[in-house]
Design a protein that fits this description.
This protein is an alpha+beta fold and 630 residues long. Helix content is 26%, strand content 17%. The strands form eight sheets. Strands 10, 11, 14, 19 and 20 form a five-stranded antiparallel β-sheet that branches. A hairpin with a 5-residue loop joins strand 10 and strand 11 (420-424). Helix 4 (94-106) runs antiparallel to helix 18 and helix 17 runs antiparallel to helix 18. The radius of gyration is 28 Å and the shape is globular.
């Protein structure tokens, strides 16, 4: 694909003559896109096509929200768990609303693509235009709802799928809307009110609509529809850059891998060991198959872990009963603060949230994130400390659109009295400022190229402008098990400005050991929303107050306080340190004198520093040579 200079010239002419083209800064040029630029295959908006989508709090809540779920330890009831997820609250997320506002400022009508994932029933019912969400109604704030997910249809015809799928997919073929790859909200939903799911043995149907067995609901591809995203306005050029298409038209190929990547969570999984027929078995059982087995394959295995209990309030009826391995609708991820912000901004009746559910979600998030990585500390041959982080998740670590997300190493060297000698990656919890230049920060940084800068009249370089960013500036995220450079290059998720060998799913960071350090304390932190990003959402917004609202909630919620993923302590080995306190002093001298003479047990001879099976003046001289000045 070659750059079309005529398209760029036309783009500039249209931009300069379009109304409302001066946006966030006095001279910024808005991309003159419209809703057609953001078209993607899949179910399309048509209020007359779909049976109305049920709102959970008026329907599903009656049978799937209950406290007695036959499990005294874990909350299993589907609706209880869904309420406390970011799926349920995706439509109310203040960061989403702030980001969508700026997206619309930067590229006209781009918010329609945001709404398509965050408020899918509103999109399907034709209310994603205007793209600022002004046509949405209260029912659309049900987020990624029960009725929406349980009407999703597999885009691939299979004899295992419901027979009803044939007509649905045929209609999409005839209209030219059948998706051929996951991503960009290319989901398909059943126009008819049904309940689709992975249970094949339901004998008692208490719904007023059919229950259809759908193996698709256990496949990662179901999640891929909204967890592989690209910007369809920006096309891949022959030199590897991304530039705007002709406006008012869908992307010329419709291939998300020929658009500017926004996130590749599904594709990262697809190119990991978890997507292979063999899958992966965690020896410590941190993640398991949510059908009760050991082999981990799908997104659902990790993000919908199984627990025994009930999924219906009428579980005491024999034909309904409790079940083994009920996939819990927790959808836990890495977001550690937005749920609290949602509760602050909306009435509890609307969100279904309360103190207990917020605390439960936070507890689950911490536990989940601590399973996602492992840390090991060792000393190198040249007496430096190495901190290794191993990615135990099914995708890059971290994953998703950057949005200020980052993981970093905080390493503190302590002396014998526990005082800090030196700290790397210091974070100020009061100001939310991180010192980044002396440690490892795992992140993706995107930006605006010089050519794009000249089109939109914004500075080239790193940027948070989601729909204008057209280059990946840096990406050192740790890849998953099964990583190859070729595969990740093909999905536009390869490292940039960093390197990993094929098969590598860990990263090492080397630190010098300062004088007087006797102990190392290393902590791996994850932060959902950085200060830099939230301030951008506040300051770049010239349309409304959504940026200020998001910022205020960020402050109220503790400024997205970092979450601890791993924490390890390590005693610095010092030759001649007989007491194991990390320094050589008078206590070591006394220990040596106490063992003076021939060794009674050569295999455990304390003080024999030169290994001649006797503790004498030679060993004393070695000890004095390492005497600590600290």
């Amino acid at each position: 694909m070659k750059k079309d200079k005529n398209i760029l010239i036309l783009f500039l002419l249209v931009s300069l003559t379009a109304q409302c083209c001066l946006m966030a800064s006095a001279d910024q040029v808005q991309v003159p896109s419209n809703e057609f630029d953001f078209y993607h295959p899949g179910s399309q908006p048509d209020p007359s096509l779909y049976d109305y989508f049920q709102v959970g709090k008026h329907n599903c809540i009656n049978c799937h929200k209950f406290d007695d779920d036959n499990n005294p330890v874990e909350v299993v009831a589907p609706y209880n768990n869904w309420l406390t997820s970011m799926m349920a609250q995706a439509s109310r997320d203040p960061v989403f609303h702030a980001a969508m506002t700026i997206a619309n400022q930067d590229a006209n009508d781009s918010g329609t693509l945001c709404i398509r994932c965050h408020m899918p029933t509103g999109f399907l019912m034709g209310r994603a235009m205007p793209a600022d969400g002004s046509a949405l109604i209260e029912d659309d704030y049900d987020g990624v709802s029960c009725d929406f997910c349980h009407r999703m249809v597999d885009p691939v015809i299979s004899k295992d799928n419901p027979i009803e799928d044939i007509d649905i997919l045929t209609d999409l073929v005839n209209s030219g809307d059948l998706p051929w790859q996951p991503g960009n909200a290319s989901y398909i939903v059943d126009p008819v009110e049904t309940r689709r799911g992975p249970l094949w043995d339901v004998t008692t149907n208490m719904h007023s609509v059919p229950i259809l067995y759908s193996p698709h609901h256990e496949e990662a591809a179901l999640c891929g529809s909204c967890h592989d995203l690209s910007n369809p306005v920006l096309s891949l050029q022959s030199d590897g850059t991304y530039l705007p298409n002709a406006m008012g038209l869908e992307h010329p190929t419709g291939n998300i891998h020929e658009m500017m990547p926004e996130q590749r969570t599904y594709s990262e999984w697809l190119n990991s060991v978890f997507a292979t027929p063999e899958g992966y078995i965690f020896e410590d059982g941190r993640f398991t198959d949510n059908n009760g087995g050991d082999v981990v394959h799908s997104c659902q295995d990790c993000h919908m872990p199984a627990s025994d209990g009930a999924n219906c309030v009428f579980w005491d009826i024999p034909d309904v009963g409790p079940r083994e391995n009920v996939p819990m609708h927790t959808f836990v991820g890495s977001n550690s603060w937005v749920l609290g912000a949602v509760r602050n901004l909306y009435d509890d009746f609307e969100t279904g949230l309360n103190d207990e559910s917020i605390e439960l979600n936070h507890q689950r998030t911490v536990e989940f994130m601590q399973k996602a990585s492992d840390m090991d500390i060792s000393i190198t041959s040249d007496n430096k400390v190495n901190v290794r982080i191993t990615n135990m998740s099914g995708h890059s670590l971290p994953t998703g659109y950057p949005e200020g997300r980052r993981i970093w190493l905080n390493v503190r060297f302590l002396d014998g009295s526990g005082e800090v000698v030196l700290e790397h990656g210091a974070y100020d919890f009061d100001t939310a400022e991180l010192i980044t230049d002396d440690t490892k920060v795992y992140e993706t940084r995107v930006g605006i190229s010089q050519e794009m800068s000249e089109i939109v009249n914004l500075p080239a370089g790193e940027s948070f402008h989601l729909v204008l960013n057209n280059e990946v500036v840096f990406d050192n995220r740790i890849p998953p098990m099964g990583f190859t450079n070729a595969a990740f290059e093909s999905i536009q998720s390869a490292p940039v400005g960093y390197s990993y060998d094929d098969g590598q799913y860990w990263d090492d960071t080397i630190y010098d050991i300062p004088e007087c350090a006797t102990q190392i304390v290393a902590t791996l932190y994850h932060q959902t929303t950085s200060k830099e990003y939230i301030e951008f959402l506040r300051d770049a917004n010239v349309t409304n107050d959504t940026g200020q609202i998001a910022y205020d909630q960020w402050v109220i919620g503790g400024k997205s306080a970092p979450l601890v993923m791993d924490n390890e302590s390590f005693i610095v080995p010092v030759f001649g340190d007989l007491t194991g306190d990390g320094i050589i002093n008078v206590t070591d001298l006394l220990e040596l004198i106490n063992n003076w003479g021939e060794c009674s047990n050569p295999k455990n001879c304390i003080g024999d520093l030169n290994n001649d099976n006797v503790v004498n003046v030679s060993d004393l001289l070695v000890l004095i040579g390492g005497w600590s000045n600290c």
